[in-house]
Amino acid sequence: MNLVGLLKAVLGFASALTEYLRNRELLEAGEAKAIAEGLKNANEAIEKARRARRNAVRDFDKRDGVPDDNDPNLRD
Fold first, then answer.
1. Quick one: pLDDT at residue 43?
2. Among 22, 59, 64, 68, fewest CB within 10 Å belongs to which?
3. CA-atom Rg of the chain in angstroms
4. Distance (Å, whole) CA 22 – CA 30
5. How far apart are CA 24 and CA 35, in angstroms?
6. Which of helix, strand or coil describes residue 49?
7. Euclidean distance between the first and final Cα of the chain, in Å?
8. Does this model's pTM top 0.70?
9. pLDDT tens, position by position, 37-59
10. Does 74 have pLDDT greater than 70?
11. Which residues are CB-neighbours of 65 under 8 A, at least 6 positions away?
């Protein structure tokens, strides 16, 4: 194998390695973005549930724990 062939092989390997590392970096960035979005959505859902719980407790306490007759959730 002559020097030109060896140099061509080394450059080809370096090019392939660079492309692999770039693609891996892009995948990791995408994963981080997806994780961040999932955590944001989970935090929003948790906060929504906390607000609903606070409102339910407030309403329960406001009526001294006894629901009024206008409650549509009362059963016969």
1. 97
2. 64
3. 31
4. 12
5. 16
6. helix
7. 93
8. no
9. 999 999 999 999 999 999 988 88
10. no
11. none
